[in-house]
Amino acid sequence: MSYHNPHTPPRKSATFDDYTLAEIRRAAATGIYDIRGAGAKRKVPHFDDLLFLGASISRYPLEGYRERCDTSVTLGTRFAKKPIELKIPITIAGMSFGALSGPAKEALGRGATIAGTSTTTGDGGMTNEERGHSEKLVYQYLPSRYGMNPTDLRRADAIEVVVGQGAKPGGGGMLLGQKISDRVAEMRTLPKGIDQRSACRHPDWTGPDDLEIKILELREITNWEKPIYIKVGGARPYYDTALAVKAGADCVVLDGMQGGTAATQDVFIENVGMPTLACVRPAVQALQDLGMHREVQLIVSGGIRSGADVAKALALGADAVAIGTAALVALGDNDPHLEAEYQKLGTTAGAYDDWHEGRDPAGITTQDPVLAARVDPVAAGRRLANYLKVMTLEAQTIARACGHNRLANLEPEDLCALTMEAAAMAKVPLAGTDWYPGKAGF
Amino acid sequence: MPVFDLAKTPLREFNAALHSVGNGDNDTAFEVLNPRGSHALAVGIDQPLSVDVRGSVGYYCAGMNDGGAVTVHGSAGPGVAENMMTGTVTIEGDASQYAGATGRGGLLVIKGNAASRCGISMKGIDIVVHGNIGHMSAFMAQSGHLVVLGDAGEALGDSLYEAKLFVRGEVKSLGADCVEKEMRPEHIEVLAGLLEKAGADAKPEEFKRYGSARTLYNFNIDNADAY
Questions:
Q1: Which of A15, A27, A47, B57 makes an SS bond possible with B61, Cβ 3.0 to 4.6 Å?
Q2: For the segment A422-434, what is each residue's pLDDT rounded down to a tens digit?
Q3: Which residues of A touch B114 (CB under 8 A)?
Q4: In CATH, what number is assigned to the domain containing residue A181?
Q5: Helix%, strand%, coil% for chain B, nearest 5
Q6: Is A13 among the domain residues?
Q7: Which positions, given as ranges, span the membrane (chain B) (predicted)?
Q8: Residue of B nearest to A144 (CA)
C-alpha cells in the first residue's frame, strides 16, 4: 500500500482577502484612491442587533387596526416662530441638485409631500422645482455656500447648518467635472466641467462660539421664523450635541457612518466616524444632561431602512429620523431590472456606487439629460410615498405591540440587545439579562 | 431719518425695521448710534436703503445685503458683508477675518486693513481694501475682484478659481495654483472703475494681477503634491 503525503488545500489570508488584494492591484495600476458614493458597506453594529420586547403581563398592548397610534412630530419648538409640523417622523435627508438629477429631486419633494414630511436641499442650492413640489423644505447652509441667497433662505421652512455628515465627518466633498452641467455650474458660480470642491469647514466661522453668532445672523435675516437645525457627523455625539444646543440649535441632526454621500474616498467612508447605533444614546444623554431632551429635537440618520429602524431610533430617544440611500432605492436606484446596464458598468444591481461618474442607469445620480429623463417624478414620488407609508405602518405596529399610542412614547425599556456590542452602544440590556456593558453596579 | 440707539433699542427691533421697508417707502435712510460691537447688525437688507453706523460692529455686519448702502464709521468684526448679493458696504476703519466671504455681488470697501481670509470663497463680489490684507485671502475665490492697495499676506489666492486679484504692494506668497498674470487693457479698465467707486487714490498701472493657473481644476494624481 503506497502512501501519498496529503496536500494542504490552498488557503487565502483573512487579512489579505480577495477584495483587499484587488484594491491593492487597482491602486498600483491607477495611482489614485477609490472614490465612490453611498455610506459604509462594512458590517457594523446596527439596529438589527436590537429587538423589541413587545407587550406582556406588565405591558398592555394596543389593538393594531383599531386603536390610534400618533405619528406626528413637531420640529423646531425651541426658538422658531414657525416650527415644522410633520405627519410622520421620517424625513428626507439633504441631497444636492448636482449630485442628483432634477427629476430625482422633484420626486423626493413629491413623495415627501404626499407622506406629510419634509425634504432637504443639498450642496448646490434650492431649485424652483424642488421648492414647488416640497410642502416642507429644509434649506441646507453648507461650507461651500453654493447657491446660497437670502431669498431662498426666507422661502425655506427650516435651515440646516451642516457641520458634518456621517459618511465623512471632517471631510468636504467633490462634485467631479463630468456632472457639472450648465445649470449646475451656474447655480454654483463656477465654470462648466471643472471639479467643484465642497469645503470641509465653513468659511466664516470656526467653533461653537462663532456658530452661535452665525445662527443669530440667520435668525435675524429670517425674522426668527425658521427652525435652525445643526447637522453633525457621528464622531463625538455627546459633545457635538451639547455644543449644538449651546450654539442655539432648534434641532440636532446626527448622521452615523452608514449615511450616504455623493462622492468621497472609500477609505474615508469605511474608516472614519461611528456607527449610527453608537451615536444615539450619547446624543440623547447630552440633551438630557442639559435639560433639553424633547425641547431640542434629535433627528437620526445613517442606515435607516425600515419601520423597525425608525421605531428603534425613536425608542433610543430620537424625535425623528432622516433617510437618504433608502429614499433613492425607493425612487429606483440599483433596481435589478437595470442589471444588464449595471453589468456594462462593471458592477451589479445593489452594488452600484459610482454615483460621482454621472452614468447612473436609473437616472438618479446623474446630470445626463437622457438618463435623467428615465426618472418619472410623479411615479417615483409615489413609490417614495408608498415606502414612507409602509415604514410608518411598521413603526406603528411595533409601538402598539409595546403598548404605546404615540411613536414618540417608545423608550429604551422596550428594547433588548442581541450582542454585547449593541448592548454597550445602545445601553439596553443584553437579551435575557438586566445587564449591559458599562452599567453601574456590575 | 430714523435713528436707532442700540444702547436703548434691541437689535431685533432695528433689523426688523430694516426688513419692514417696502418699495416706495420714504424713510430709507437709517442711522445707528452706540452699536457697541453688536453682531448681525443690518443683516438681510432687501431694499435700496442706507444705513450709517456710528461706531464699530461685531460679526456679520450687513450679512447677505441685497441692495443696501451700509457705512460703518468704525471697524468691523469677522464676516462683514458675508454673502452680499448687491449694494455697497463701506468700512471706514479696519475689518476682521473673512470680510466679504462668499459674496455674490455688490461692492465692499474697507478703508483700513483687512485680516486673514478676506474674500474667502467669493462668488462675484468686488472688494477694495485701501490697506493690507492678511493670509489666505481669496481662498477658493470663485468670481469677482479683490483689489488691495497695500500688501497681501501669505498664500494669496490659494486654490483660486476665476476671481481676479489686484495687489499694489507686496505679496508675501502665492497659494496653490495662484499665479501672476498679464495686466491687459481690459483689466486696467475694470480696476480703474473699481478704484474710482471705492474712492481710492491709486493708479491701475501700479497694480499686479493674479489669477488661477487652472492646473487644479480637474483632479489629477500627478498634482497630489500641490494639495
A1: B57
A2: 999 999 999 999 9
A3: none
A4: 3.20.20.70
A5: 15, 30, 60
A6: no
A7: none
A8: B121
